[in-house]
Amino acid sequence: MTRxxxxxxxxxxxxxxxxxxxxxxxxxxxxxxxxxxxxxxRARAVNPVINAVVAWLDEHADLRxxxxxxxxxxxxxxxxxxxxxxxxxxPSSDGCRAFAGRTASGTxxxxxxxxxxxxxxxxxxxxxxxxxxxxxxxxxxxPARNPxxxxxxxxxxxxxxxxxxxxxxxxxxxxxxxGGSIRIPAACTGLVGLKAGRGLVPAGPVESEPLNxxxxxxxxxxxxxxxxxxxxxxxxxxxxSPFVAALPDRPLADQLDDAPGTLRIGYTxxxxxREKPHPEAVRAVERSAELLTELGHEVEEVEPPHDDRxxxxxxxxxxxxxxxxxxxxxxxxxxCGDDSFEPDTLMMGALGxxxxxxxxxxxxxxxxxxxxxxxxxxSRYDLLMTPSLGEPPIEVGSLDTPAALQTMSKLLxxxxxxxxxxxxxxxxxxxxxxxxxxxYTQLANITGRPAISLPLHRTEAGLPLGVQFVGPLQxxxxxxxxxxxxxxxxxxxxxxxxxxxx
Length: 502
What we know:
single chain, 11 strands, about 40% helix
């Protein structure tokens, strides 16, 4: 066995992905404690700039790092997202002031599986209140920032996790995706973000199908092999699962070197939520189409296969109702008032309260139409390719609700006259404002299909802007094999941002 070193050089730490660090631990070259110390040192250096980590689990991490660990990621430092990824006895705020200081009473299934894989959890990452935005700017913790340009967002709702990975605090971090919340931040920060298909990753032991089946847990990583191995760790039902999704026939990490074959890929940048696609988004997809063609795939431009404007409205309607239910539940359980929630959250909840049972049912029923449209597309093409973002990462604060509208919404909520919000057409305004810069990701959530964002493009200013692939049912292995082929053909590793802070 190779003798362990006293310290881990940060430059070497940054060169390895999660599996690479686990190999160093397994071979005795480094210890879990040394990796933990290096991760903490890196966090102390960069977190004041990016505000990615919002809770520190030092006692838990120290105990883990000093004990015997086993599993594919044994000894690797790891961060949980501070949203529905509970570890018993540790902070669990969901980005909401009503839950500031709350500790989790139990450990969620996915967290238990990460622990069983040998990971050393030492913190939790920043997320918007209830994960309800494609940016990460909660009032409770303040905004997370993009390591490539701290004036810009790392996306959301897994923005803290993406910022932490991009800045080199950890090689891979926990994330979740209810409307693009893995893929959007991965695209903003130059990382890999895979959303598994519906039901493949369990949500228990408390929840069964979060957000009516739209949401799932996963990770954001630097390499395809880490994403594959992490999904291998997470898949499989548990008692709260509503059904058993078909599992991969063999580990996904073992399939990465299998050629994906010649694929038919249809691509589009057109979207009803954006009158004119951003030139960088168009460039990202067109250059990727050229690369795919060079690799032997059949690629052609297509019309969007679905009614994306209606899908956006249906998606937000479900979110609004979810917010209304959550706010009412939290008020009952904690006795808190409206001042414990952000104004935008209250406005979304108010719109949800105005939604009748018939309207919600119609939105849910239209899921069938969206699934049928995408299934028809996949009968002709293996994969759909789009930009992951409608435009490059936007500046922090650019989606702030204007002060006048905040004042009006507070008044309407307080006086229970929120019906005016609809009469003013605010639902359409919210759709346009919040989805126009990330209009491509919700399709995979509504239809329950797997999708992946890959860091295939950089803008002229050096900002990441990912490319998304949406597959049919049970196409996780295919998406990962294609991702690995692209990773080899056009390596996307760049020098870690904020390196001068090491």
